[in-house]
Specification:
Rossmann fold, alpha/beta, 13 helices, 2 domains, four-stranded parallel beta sheet, five-stranded parallel beta sheet
Length: 380
C-alpha cells in the first residue's frame, strides 16, 4: 500500500527529528542571571553560551552537538529548586552546570543527588562541596580557603588582632564561621564583630563601632554583592587606617566601580589568577589559559572579565573532557570521569580531583591581590 506523500514526508521528518534529538547532549543550567547576584550569573551564562557554540562548531562531543538549557533563578533558592526540577524531569538533561550563589546551589544539590545526575556548581561556600556527595562537584575556591589565604597574608605582616564585619547572607555567614575555625591556627584574635543585611545601604554605624575598638590591626569583610562595596566606601569615608580585606566574592571589576577606585585603593583579597592574567610570569602554567579566556570573553561581550565567568569555563571544560573520556553522556560514566580529573589547568587553578575531593584545588590556586589605581595587582 502506497502512503500519501504528505504522510510519508511527515514520518520522515519525525524520524529525522528523533535522530537529531538522540544526537544531542543536553546540559542544564540554573543561574542567577538577573537580581542581586547577576554579577555572578550573567558572566557565567555568557561564558557557557560562547564556549558551547565553539565546541559545537568544532563537532561537539563524540559527534554529538550540545544543547544548553538555561533558566534564571534571579538569586531565589526556591526558583532554583523549581528550575532544577524542570531540567531533570521535563528537559531530561544529561548533566547540570548550576548554582551561582551558595543559597541557590544548596537548593539544587539534593535534587541532583536523588536523580543521580552529574552536577558541577559555582558556589563559594565550603558546604557546596563538603561533605563530599557522589554526584556533586564544584569549581570555585572555598570560603575556608579564602580565610586561610587571608590569614597567611596577615601572619606575614605581623597582624594578629582583627575585627570582622560580615554579610548575613548564606555566603557571608559561612565564610565568617569558616574563618573562626582557623583563627588559632594562624594566631589571629577577633576583637570585635559586626554584621549587615544583604539590602543594607549604609554600614557606617557598624564600622564606627569597629573604628572605636582599640587594638584592631586589620578588618575582614566576608561577603558578596553590593554589601562589600558599601563597606569599602563607608570605610574610606570614616578614615579607618587599618588594612581592609575582602573575600573572593568580590572578584569582578564591578566591585571596584561600585566601591569607587579611590575607596577601594589598598583593599586586599584572595582571588583566581584570571584577574591578573597579563601580570603573570610567562612560566606560570595558568597564563595561557587565563589570557586566552580573558581575550575571548572581553572580545565577545565587551565587558571586563570576572572570576565568576571563569568558574563556568572551568566547570564546562571539566564536564566536556569527562564526557569525551566517557565516550558520551552516560551519567554514571561521566560522573566517574569528572572524579578522575587530574592536572586540569583552569582559570581557578590546577585541578586534581579524587573520590574524597570534588573540588581539587589547594591554597596555591589562590593569588593574593591588592587594588591599586583602580586595578588588580599581585601582592609580593
Amino acid at each position: 500500500m502506497k502512503l500519501p506523500v504528505r504522510l510519508l514526508t511527515a514520518i520522515i521528518a519525525l524520524l529525522l527529528s528523533a535522530g537529531l534529538a538522540q544526537a544531542q547532549i543536553k546540559i542544564g543550567s540554573v543561574l542567577s542571571v538577573t537580581g542581586p547576584a547577576s554579577f555572578l550569573g550573567d558572566p557565567e551564562k555568557k561564558t557557557l553560551e560562547m564556549y558551547i557554540a565553539d565546541i559545537n562548531a568544532k563537532g561537539g562531543i563524540a559527534g554529538k552537538k550540545i544543547e544548553l538549557v538555561v533558566y534564571d533563578d534571579g538569586g531565589d533558592p526556591n526558583q532554583a529548586r523549581t528550575f532544577a526540577t524542570r531540567l531533570i524531569e521535563q528537559d531530561k538533561v544529561d548533566a547540570l552546570l548550576a548554582g551561582s550563589t551558595t543559597a541557590t546551589t544548596m537548593a539544587i544539590i539534593p535534587l541532583a543527588e536523588e536523580a543521580q545526575l552529574p552536577l558541577i556548581n559555582f558556589a563559594g561556600a565550603v558546604q557546596a562541596v563538603s561533605p563530599v556527595k557522589k554526584w556533586n562537584f564544584k569549581t570555585p575556591h572555598t570560603d575556608l580557603m579564602a580565610c586561610e589565604k587571608i590569614f597567611e597574608d596577615m601572619k606575614k605582616r605581623g597582624t594578629t588582632k582583627i575585627a570582622i564585619i560580615s554579610g548575613a547572607d548564606a555566603f557571608g555567614k559561612s565564610m565568617r564561621d569558616q574563618c573562626m575555625t582557623v583563627t588559632k591556627k594562624y594566631g589571629i584574635e577577633v576583637l570585635h564583630e559586626e554584621t549587615y543585611q544583604p539590602r543594607d545601604n549604609d554600614m557606617t554605624a557598624q564600622l564606627t563601632n569597629i573604628k572605636g575598638k582599640a587594638g584592631v590591626q586589620a578588618v575582614l569583610n566576608p561577603g558578596f554583592g553590593q554589601g562589600p562595596a558599601i563597606v569599602t566606601r563607608n570605610y574610606k569615608q570614616l578614615g579607618i587606617s587599618a588594612p581592609l580585606y575582602q573575600s573572593h566574592g568580590v572578584g569582578s571589576k564591578s566591585f571596584i566601580d561600585l566601591a569607587t577606585p579611590a575607596a577601594a585603593e589598598g583593599v586586599r583579597l584572595p582571588a583566581a589568577a584570571l584577574l591578573v592574567a597579563d601580570k603573570l610570569a610567562d612560566s606560570d602554567p595558568q597564563k595561557k589559559v587565563v589570557v586566552d579566556y580573558k581575550k575571548a570573553y572581553e572580545s565577545k561581550t565587551g565587558q571586563p572579565v570576572s572570576t565568576f565567568g571563569g568558574h563556568a569555563y572551568d566547570g564546562l571544560m571539566i564536564l566536556v573532557d569527562a564526557m569525551k573520556r566517557a565516550g558520551g553522556a552516560d551519567k554514571a560514566k561521566v560522573r566517574g570521569e569528572i572524579e578522575k580529573t587530574r592536572g586540569f589547568i583552569g582559570t581557578g587553578g590546577v585541578v586534581n580531583m579524587s573520590a574524597t575531593d570534588h573540588l581539587g584545588l589547594n591554597l596555591t590556586a589562590f593569588r593574593m591581590l591588592e587594588i591599586r589605581s583602580g586595578d588588580w595587582t599581585l601582592v609580593k
